[in-house]
Design goal:
By secondary structure, the chain is mainly beta. It is built from ten helices and 45 strands.
Length: 804
Amino acid sequence: MDTVKRTINDNWKFHLGDCEPAWYKGFDDSGWQPVRLPHDWSVALPFDPKNSSGTGYVSGGIGWYRCRFSLPEEYAGKSVRLVFDGVYKNSQVWVNSYYLGKRPNGYVSFAYDITPFVSFGERDNEISVKVTHTDLADSRWFTGSGITRSVHLEIAEPVHPALYGIFFETKQVGADSALVQVTQELVNQTDHTARVGIVSRLVDEAGQTVLELRGETQAESGAEAVAVLSGTLKNPRLWSIEEPYLYRLCTDYCVDEGAFYRVDEESVGVRSIRFDADKGFFLNEKPMKIKGVCVHHDGGCLGAAMTAPVWQRRLSSLKESGCNAIRCSHNPHMPELYALCDRMGFVMMDEAFDEWENAKNKWSTGHNVYPPRHQGYFEDFPQWHEADLKAMVRRDRNHPSVILWSIGNEIDYPNDPYCHPMFETMTGNNDANKPAAERTYDPDKPNAERLTVLAARLAGMVRQEDTSRPVTLAAAFPELSSRIGFLDALDVAGYNYKEHLYEEDHKRFPKLPFLGSENGHSYAAWKAVRDNDYISGQFLWTGIDYLGEAHGWPIRGSQAGILTTAGDKKPGFYKTASFWKSEPLVRIATRPEDTQKQGREAKWTPVQELWAYEAGQRVTAECASNADSVALYLNGREIGRKEGCDEEGVFSFSLDYEPGELCAKAFDAEGREVAAHRLVTPGPAAKLACSLWQAEDALSGRSWEEAGQQPGYLYQLKLLLTDENGQPAVSDDREVSVSVSGPGELMGLENGDLSDVSAYSNPFRKTWLGRLTAYVRRNGAGAITVTVRSVLAGGEQTDEITVD
């Protein structure tokens, strides 16, 4: 029988609160809440300033999930595996009253062999999952709570691949051929030694087999065996950013000369990667600057229960900025994100940990407000780090988009808690208002030299599973750590906000490639990459605003992104695009001239695309452009013209406000107009425009209409306030209510305003800068009607959108 992979996200029941007998198969859960996975209970609860600022002022607790499923009689005698893509956190799992185990880590994928415990035929099986998230200051960002990713069943013959046991590698790429290798780790659950024939085929997008690899191995009863197949692919289509071409790897087994059966199908890419200490990063032997962004895993009002369509919309926008890389901060993300990057053309840094043996400071009453809390993954690191790290590598190593394994983020952050006598005082990149005593060397704190030992151990674990990609980490204080061997085990050194050290440390480590693993949005940070071949690229902090790491109530998230939590483009998006792209652009954003911005956070505080101030008020207009010169016009009058951007990378103008049209025009070196952008003073909000985000499903290739018929599909409804003339009413926000009828459900409303502390469970929300995004999930077949209401300048407006 061919292996069957079945997602079981439907028919779950949920209960918030401890319910100890719920592990029992006969437990009565009829009064529990029906839910569909992925599910995050934290994000639906009210925000509360008594909760931790670091995790976004949300609540946690203990939650139970239960699900019934059946297996046809024809599956009797087969192997059954239960796979969780991620549960935050401390999951405990039972099947039919049998306890399977616990997984503390909330981000890694894990599985259980449930073959001995399941029933076949008419009798139902029951899964019970207990999730414990009572330590609310366990992270420096929002985590969510619950079964936040998908759950799957895999039904296979007793001889089948180990979990993530098929590993595809491009060993060498030549002018017209590529040497590829497929490693097979398989499991024999029969009662006898098995001789296993193996066939792996590469199939192109036209459905033609372009390479067939054959091998054989012998597996003892109850044991694993390994077989390595290799061959040469002629005239390969290489995976790249511009053309992310994917093959289908299809693998069949036969046992003791029996019939072949399909055990696995997955997408793979053929490509080469190389980091050079002097010349930077090469993809398929072509030099490429990594223009990346860091991303956390939440989706605003969706919390940690993200879906592929939401990520696809976000990635599509990031692509427009010139972005070509994603850093998974600071943990493995949902599998769908990696698959999307494969198909849409992004390279990725996959990251395992934010802390190792010792706790970092977790701010619970505002950023850098003492005393911090000390909860989190460090409690489980000693027992679980090897299993968790290898789980990430094994799961993600077949993705051509993944080019770097990161074993940690800012583990060497000064005095957090590691320190060293080499430095009497140390100040990190995010230490504003930190007391002097907390910056001072303390011999009773852990010695930073311990990190060198751990880094070498972790790098070795990665290489046990994959040697085809370099190992890196994101260093926070290389002023110390680079001098005590912290970088010695790395293939690529990642520096966070240390552009001023690039030249010096390149000379100190002439054979070590360097990368900006986390960077600010400044022009200077970009120039440090652009003007130095030996710096492979940068990852901006961040690509998207996120929940948590809040500076204090009522702000409940970070505004560091170039997209809002609603997925809307911020002025910083266009500034970044002006650095990264060659296509001509110009974009205006404004702010009152008396606005005083201070510190690194100031660079993250956005100006707005707004032309509505008090008459005569002095205003600064910042024009993001990659053109040679920019001219600014107010109601047809030229205000000024500037050659070349300023030290912040923009063209800045100062002017007195008057209503009307503000226009920026960009010109090339010959004086030809190449781009223009206009802001118009809006009137009161008079109309509410509603539109559905529509795009071909990147993972399945189905049209938007076909993809939208699948249960669980998440529609994204974009709402925009405009005045009578259709201009965005960015300065006249209104409350909007949304209701859904038919086989659909409102999953949340997101405006992108991280100071809005109204509950996400409400079916109404105020717009922010005239915008709001509504998420509606399909739960069954049939027409779904979404009704949108708001009181505007001309009275109440009601609109309906129906999707069949």
